[in-house]
Specification:
Helices cover 39% and strands 17% of the residues. The chain is an alpha/beta fold. The strands form two sheets. Strands 7-6-8-9-10-11 form a six-stranded mixed beta sheet, with helices on both faces. Strands 2-1-3-4-5 form a five-stranded parallel beta sheet, sandwiched between helices.
Length: 336
C-alpha cells in the first residue's frame, strides 16, 4: 500500500515544487539573505488542530533557517488588529493569521502596511486592489473524501456522528467531502451533525459526541478535539481530522485526513524572498496534488479495514493525483 499515501520524500518534493512556483525552493531562502522575519497571531492555543498545523510548518521553516518566527496565541478578536499592527511595526516582513472573524479589520491593517506581506486564513478571496494581502484555507477535501470511504465501510450500524466547530465553509467542505466518500461505500448511511459554536472546547465536543453515541452512532467524525475521547471511552471508532492522533487512541481511531501547511508556507516565504509576493489564493496548496493534504497510514488498523475498501481508496487516490477524479468542494452547511 506504499502508493496509497504521500511519504515524506514525496511531500518534500511537492513542497519544493510549490515554493519554486513562487521563485525559490525551500532551503534556498537563507542563501539569498537573512532569514525572513515572520510573525503570527492566533485566536486559539497552538495545540488546536488548525493553528497547530500552521505553527508546525512555521517552526520547520525556522529550523531550516528560512525564517525567524514569533507568535501570539489566544488573541481575542477585539485585540487582534492591535497585535497585527504591533508585529507590522516591529519589523515583520510577513504576518500570518486568521481573518475569519475580523476580515475587514485585518484588510485595513494590511492596507496601512503595503510593504509587508499578509498571509491570512480567510473565507474570502484575495483582492487585486490590496496586493500585499493573500488568503489561504485548509482545502483538504481530497483527504476527507478518502477518510469517508473508510468510515462508510467500518460503520456497522450505518449511523455516523459528526461534531464540528462552526458551520462555516472551512468546516462544511470537509464534512461534505467526508459524507460523500462514506456514501460511495454505503448510500444508505445516516449522519448526525452538530456544531458546538467554538474552535476549542473539548469538553463540549465530547458531551455532544456522547449524545450521538446514545442515539445510535457507532463511528464518529472528530472535526474537533474531544470527540475522539468520547469514542475511546465508549469503545466505538473515530476518524480524525487535520492531525493524526491515533497514538492517543490506538484502539479506536482508524485514520485521519491530514493537513500539511508546509507547501503554503514555503510558497509564500519564497515569494517574499523573491520580492514577488502579491494578492493570491494560496488555498490551492492544500490540495492533495500539491502535497497539502493526505490520508494517514492505517497504523494500528492495518489489516482491519476491508481489502476492497483499501483498493477503492488506492484507486481514488491515484485518480485525485492525476486529475481524473475531482472531489467536489461544497461549502454549504451539511444536512443530517
Amino acid at each position: 500500500m506504499a502508493n496509497l499515501f504521500l511519504n515524506r520524500r514525496q511531500l518534500l518534493s511537492r513542497t519544493a515544487g510549490a515554493a519554486a512556483l513562487a521563485g525559490l525552493a525551500p532551503g534556498l531562502l537563507r542563501a539569498q539573505g537573512a532569514a525572513i522575519p515572520v510573525a503570527a497571531a492566533y485566536t486559539v492555543p497552538v495545540e488546536q488542530k488548525w493553528v497547530g498545523r500552521i505553527h508546525i510548518a512555521a517552526e520547520a521553516a525556522q529550523a531550516r533557517g528560512d525564517i525567524s518566527y514569533k507568535f501570539s496565541e489566544n488573541v481575542s478578536n477585539t485585540d487582534y488588529t492591535r497585535v497585527l499592527r504591533e508585529y507590522a511595526e516591529g519589523g515583520a516582513k510577513m504576518v500570518i493569521g486568521e481573518a475569519f472573524a475580523v476580515e475587514q479589520e485585518a484588510r485595513e491593517v494590511a492596507a496601512d502596511y503595503p510593504e509587508i506581506a499578509f498571509l491570512m486564513g480567510s473565507s474570502f478571496k484575495a483582492d487585486p486592489d490590496l496586493p500585499n494581502f493573500s488568503t489561504f484555507d485548509n482545502y483538504i477535501q481530497d483527504a476527507s473524501y478518502l477518510s469517508g470511504i473508510i468510515a462508510g465501510a467500518m460503520s456497522k450500524s450505518g449511523n455516523i456522528g459528526m461534531v464540528g466547530g462552526f458551520p462555516i465553509p472551512e468546516v462544511n467542505r470537509l464534512m461534505n467531502a467526508f459524507m460523500a466518500g462514506a456514501k460511495e461505500v454505503n448510500p444508505d448511511l445516516k449522519f448526525q451533525i452538530a456544531f458546538i459554536g467554538s474552535w476549542f472546547d473539548p469538553p463540549k465536543a465530547k458531551e455532544t459526541a456522547f449524545a450521538m453515541i446514545e442515539n445510535g452512532a457507532d463511528l464518529l467524525y472528530a472535526e474537533r478535539f474531544g470527540v475522539a475521547d468520547a469514542a475511546k471511552e465508549r469503545g466505538i471508532l473515530s476518524i480524525g481530522n487535520v492531525v493524526n492522533t491515533q497514538a492517543d487512541y490506538p484502539e479506536t481511531e482508524v485514520a485521519s485526513a491530514l493537513w500539511h501547511f508546509e507547501p503554503t508556507m514555503d510558497a509564500a516565504t519564497a515569494a517574499v524572498a523573491a520580492g514577488e509576493f502579491t494578492a493570491a489564493d494560496y488555498g490551492v496548496f492544500s490540495f492533495m496534488k500539491h502535497g497539502g493534504c493526505s490520508l494517514s497510514e492505517l497504523g494500528t488498523f492495518e489489516g482491519k479495514v476491508p481489502a476492497e475498501t483499501m483498493e477503492l481508496v488506492t484507486a481514488r487516490t491515484a485518480q485525485i493525483l492525476s486529475g481524473e477524479f475531482e472531489v467536489e468542494i461544497v461549502d454549504s452547511e451539511p444536512a443530517a
